[in-house]
Specification:
This protein is an alpha/beta fold. The protein is 37% helix and 20% strand. The strands form two sheets. Strands 1, 2, 5, 6, 7, 8, 9, 10 and 11 form a nine-stranded mixed sheet that branches.
Length: 220
């Protein structure tokens, strides 16, 4: 493990798997959805992390049924949103961030993201959702727009992600650093990986990270 102090203008957080533990909720909702659509549950669950629901539905459901199918999964996820819990360090980390230095960028819809964040007591100053972008992760649009809303260059922003799609989006955007979070972080090409947000502290002009080298690029 290494401890690094990294100067940055802002920190951009993914929501699910970084701030919010929604794994069980996601699994329940998508299992019910897969059963309703007569699809293999394991195949579906392997596809959903880091991707907008509409993109997953688009890959699995014929065009004539996509709208109804999307409405179903949106309803199932929203019904289960109150069951999520904060991941270790999420509350203290976001509470300690300086004003105007952080945002949340998620592949969830705005309604779902707000419900999950409210359930754990996190109120981000900037929230970018699936409803706010034309192209979701792995496209870089969400990270770029969040940085702009904070008045920062993406090249001065650190991204916290647990999905391969989100890390790819961060690299494509030109983020200063893409930091993987948790066990899923090791399956990405993140620059560094931390166990959870207990290993990130805002220190005035950036962050201090307790991290292990990631499988991706070296930090810039």
């Amino acid at each position: 493990m290494t401890c690094e102090r990294i100067r940055c203008a802002a920190v951009l957080f993914d929501c699910d798997g970084v701030l919010v533990d929604s794994d069980a909720s996601v699994a329940r909702a998508w299992t019910r959805w897969a059963d309703a659509e007569s699809l293999d549950v394991e195949r579906v669950l392997a596809m959903v992390h880091g991707r907008r629901a509409e993109d997953t539905v688009g890959l699995l459901v014929s065009e004539d049924r996509r709208e109804a199918s999307l409405q179903l999964i949106n309803r199932l996820e929203l019904e289960d949103a109150s069951t999520v819990t904060p991941l270790p360090g999420a509350l203290s980390c976001t509470e300690d961030m300086a004003e105007g230095t952080w945002a949340v960028v998620t592949s969830a819809t705005r309604e779902l993201a707000k419900a999950r964040l409210a359930a754990v007591g996190i109120d981000p100053p900037v929230l970018l959702t699936a409803d706010d972008v034309e192209h979701g992760k792995p496209a870089p649009e969400g990270w770029l727009r969040a940085a702009a809303l904070l008045g920062a260059s993406i090249s001065e922003c650190i991204v916290l992600e647990d999905s391969g799609a989100g890390v790819t989006a961060a690299h494509s955007a030109g983020a200063l650093l893409a930091v993987g979070v948790g066990e899923r972080g090791f399956a990405t090409d993140a620059d560094l990986v931390i166990r959870d947000l207990r290993d990130l502290v805002w220190v005035g002009d950036g962050v201090r990270l307790v991290a292990t080298e990631g499988p991706g690029r070296s930090p810039r």
